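User: Could you check the structure of this?
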Amino acid sequence: MRHGRSTFNAQGLYQGCCDQPELTERRRLDARLAAQALASAGIRFVVTRPLRRALDTAREILDEFRHERLPVPCRQTDDRLKEIDLAEWQGLRFDEVSSRYSEQYEIWRSNPHLLRMSTASGSTFPVLDLFERARLFWEDLLSDDTRKSVLIVAHGGTCSALISTALRIGPERFHTFQQSHAGISAIEFPSLPGRALLQTFNSVSHLWETLPKTKAGRTGLRLLLVAPAAGATLAASQLRRLLQLARTDCMISLHSPAGRETLKEMIAGADCSPLRTVLVIVPQQELRAALAGLLGMDELTAACFKLRPLSLTVIHYTGRGRPPVLQAVNLFDGAGDPAGLQCADEDRCCV
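Assistant: Sure, the predicted structure tokens are below.
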């Protein structure tokens, strides 16, 4: 889970490892709403980074557990969960960085794993360093049989690196995952060694939001992909419910050649156009293939997505020469209700 929105987020400033930003009062409420969503998840441990915005988010969650008289998990801190270290940019406005460090910024946007920054001791590759910390964190966590059902409260970049390394996705896709403030994701680690399953990604329904906000602005094309169960079709009532929830501009079915052609044309025309939201009915195997292509995975590795029939997967084609962004996986269940988070005792579950 990403921490709640901070004062630096509100001002449009890069934070990195700086400990100056703190949670806004409104976003403390978001942390408590997240606690309510996690009430039935069986959380036993909370691990966070000792920066104020992450630590205060974890404290609010634990306080809400106490208020609701729920079992209060043990809290630990781990320095490996610190945010990506963008030392030269900390405290600067986004537009200031893009103009003053234009060459670096273009590398950051296009090939984040190649970004290099000067430090007091020489230089570093911030994204590669972040991914290595995430890998070592998983290695230690998964070797401890006593820690199951763990809530990790961290930062946007750290959450992306944790999910990527768990699913064996490379650092070149660092910007593909969008992490909303107080958004919840869940990864299962079944007994089979080395295997991780993405149960939910970036759920925000507990924040009274239907869909994640578009981080890259209100331009381009946002696809809400829904796959019926194998061999089944969408009932009229299910379709109406999805259309009401998502407030889409139109609907396309990929079960017909005409629908596929229309979607191709929409994606091609997404560049700099006002945001359009389209509900896409897609066979489940094609949805999995689309995720595999977006994240550079082969078909076998793409089985890590535990796709639920009739839930929503959200992909934002931002245009402007930027790659598409994965905003959410498995939003809502077949009845149009928020998808619940459950952690089975026999498996490890990290939220």
